[in-house]
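stage 2 :: seqdesign
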């Protein structure tokens, strides 16, 4: 088990590492389709902003009724994406990656 971060820099590094592990797991969760093309974060299959509608459906199916697990997983993916996408002050990136889960 990883050590608990004791500084903000260690916590940020841990968040980035968790995000990259979540992104690495996407291939298995999406069967290699509707994957994000980074650092643009658009879909490799349909070209829409990722997660596109098909990726949302596949991820929802993967997690089933575990909406909290899906939200936590996409929160980790968001942690990776937010460092690569342009900065916004509107919360649009959070909405795009996490808030569609209801
Ligand atoms: Zn797509």
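stage 2 :: out
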């Amino acid at each position: 088990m990883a050590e608990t971060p004791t500084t903000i820099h260690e916590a940020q590094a841990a968040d980035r590492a968790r995000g990259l592990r979540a992104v690495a797991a996407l291939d298995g969760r999406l069967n290699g389709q509707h994957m994000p093309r980074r650092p643009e974060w658009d879909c490799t299959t349909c070209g829409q902003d990722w997660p596109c509608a098909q990726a949302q459906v596949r991820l929802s199916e993967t997690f089933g009724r575990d909406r909290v697990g899906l939200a936590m997983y996409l929160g980790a993916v968001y942690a990776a994406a937010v460092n690569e996408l342009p900065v916004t002050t509107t919360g649009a990136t959070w909405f795009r990656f996490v808030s569609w889960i209801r």
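stage 3 :: structure notes
- The mean pLDDT is 91.
- The radius of gyration is 14 Å.
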